[in-house]
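Hello,

Our lab assistant flagged a job as stuck in the queue for most of the afternoon. It eventually completed. Since we weren't sure the result was trustworthy after the delay, we are filing this so someone can double-check. Below is the sequence as submitted and the structure that was eventually returned. Let us know if re-running is recommended.
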Amino acid sequence: MSTTTIIILVVVVLVLLAVIGVALAMANKKKAESRRHEAERLRHEAGSHQGVLTETQRDAKQAEAEAEIKRAEAERAEQRAAEARQSHHVEEARVEDRLREADRIDPDVDHKAKDYQPGAVGTTDPAGPADATVTDPSGTHATSGTTTADPGPVDPSDPASPPAPAAPSQGSHRATPDGSSGGGTV
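-- returned structure --
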């Protein structure tokens, strides 16, 4: 190869490199311009959604305010429930105090027994005698809080005779005739 051929070859290579460089620069410029337009379009879109953003923020604040109101209502309801429980416990204690006082003054109740239960004399129903149902001689039902005729002595062999009252299952604490605690029924 001659020197002229080498020089021409080098010049052609340089021209090709220059053309390629210019083409790459133009492509990069075009790509950058395209990206600028895309960025502008996205900014414009975001700006048009600003109203939606304000609305959703207002909705979120309103939901938070409603939740706070509901929390306050729940706290008040819990406080009322706690007060009702406390009132129930106080009333329960009053009833038990009355039962203990009645048992204390009843000579047939040993209120000092280890298995003593307040008000256990005559009923095992913790709700008291007002809720118990009894059968009168005519066969009709009545609550023990109502007045019924005394059926008199019970004859177990007579089918028309009402059943004998059931003895309390526990805690009658009746004193025995000799004065000692029987711990059971007499």
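-- support follow-up --
The delay was a queue issue, not a problem with the job. The result is valid. Confidence is low (pLDDT under 50) at residues 123-151, 165-172, 181-186. The chain is about 55% helix and 5% strand.
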